[in-house]
Design brief:
single chain, alpha+beta, 5 helices, globular, 2 domains
Amino acid sequence: MGSESGQPSAPVCNRHLWTTSQPEHAGRWISYPPHRFRLQLGHHTRDLVLFNLGIDSKLRGCDLVALRVRDVAQGDRVVARAIVMQKKTHHSVKFEITEQTREAVGA
């Protein structure tokens, strides 16, 4: 699957990187873990919650950062479904919050 010059073609997935800059990795494919996994390992709770909520809700970034805990939780319990009003379109968006996201919000 390489090009005519003998070099591999461009990566299909953004989790892989062809590198020649670091001597220990020169000329090899390096694989990076998915974003969610890196956020979990790095204990970046806020970023993990926003990442998961973005995937669950498909909201725009401006709507995600405007979310408050009270939008996705009642008391000490994270709700299974939420409704958020979009700023740009003024439409309400209903979405389910996955178990993985509820665990991250509860952390």
